[in-house]
Amino acid sequence: MEIKQIAFIKSSPDLKTCPPEGPPEYVFAGRSNVGKSSLLNLLAGKKNLAKTSSTPGKTKLINHYLVDETWYLVDLPGYGFARTGKQARNDFMLSGWEFIRKRKTLSCLFILIDCRHHPLESDLAFINIAGENQVPLALIFTKSDKISGVALERNLTKYRNTLLQTWEELPPFFATSSLRQTGREEILHFIGESNRNFLNNL
Ligand code: GTP
Ligand code: MG
Asked: What is the DSSP secondary-structure string of 90-159?
């Protein structure tokens, strides 16, 4: 699947001010600075659509982008990160989590994880709580340009093994680099398939 057209619709401070439910939504969540906005730009094929920054806490609102007039990409504020302090934690906890829990048209929650790290407590807690709430999810390991292919495989295996201690079935895994522009086709293909399922289940 390719993206032909993408339009920024709005930034919403909370669930009740979001665009009406309708099109399937693909949501990017993850720790501040993990590369959510950069990945959105990579998928869209536009460098500066979503604002990115080396300072954590750049995205403070729920941002809706309508793709080909049929589905949404949604960029959320990042969750917990010591440097961003209490305010950024609140941005996510108040608006992001409510959105994830209550939005009926959420087709897939992509949880982004920095591929360089060993499984972090905050990421695992978030994955587990999303799973317990039956949120459909997939994991995206970002910044794969920062480590070797061997180290990437080792870290992904470690993640799979950690999750298998509590999960019977693993969610889909993807690896991306916004710098090298890799991982894009796999994710767009997955979204194309999910859109078909979403429409069939209406
Ligand atoms: P918040 O909005 O603060 O939650 O951050 P975010 O998750 O949207 O991260 P953002 O896309 O703004 O990227 C954070 C920093 O990481 C920026 O300096 C990006 O240039 C950098 N970055 C993002 N993705 C990649 C990647 O794949 N490779 C490399 N090398 N750098 C990346
Ligand atoms: Mg951002």
From this structure: HHIIIIIHHHHHH-TTEEEEEEEEETTSPPPHHHHHHHHHHHHTT--EEEEEE-GGGS-HHHHHHHHHHH
Let me know: does 146 contact 152? Beta carbons within 8 Å.
no
Q: What is the per-residue pLDDT across 56-113, written as a single tens digit (0 to 9) for each?
A: 776 778 999 999 999 999 998 887 644 445 555 555 666 788 899 999 999 999 999 9
Euclidean distance between CA atoms 195 and 201, whole angstroms: 10
User: Contact 138/108 with Cβ under 8 angstroms?
Assistant: yes
Give the binding-site residues of ligand 1, using a 6 Å CB cut-off: 30, 32-38, 52-54, 56-59, 77-78, 142-143, 145-146, 177-179
Of 202, 192, 153, the C-alpha closest to 173 is: 153
pLDDT digits (tens, 9 = 90+) for 138-196: 999 999 999 999 999 999 999 999 999 999 999 999 999 999 999 999 999 999 999 99
The alpha carbon torsion through 114, 119, 121, 126 (nearest 10 deg) reads 60
CA-proximal residue: ligand 1, atom 13 (nearest): 35
Q: Ligand 1 centroid vs 39 CA: distance in angstroms?
A: 8
Q: What is the pTM of this model?
A: 0.93
Q: HSE on the CB side for 82, CA within 13 Å?
A: 0
Q: Kindly list the structural domains of the chain, giving each domain's residue range(s) and its CATH number in brackets, ordered by start.
A: 6-200 (3.40.50.300)
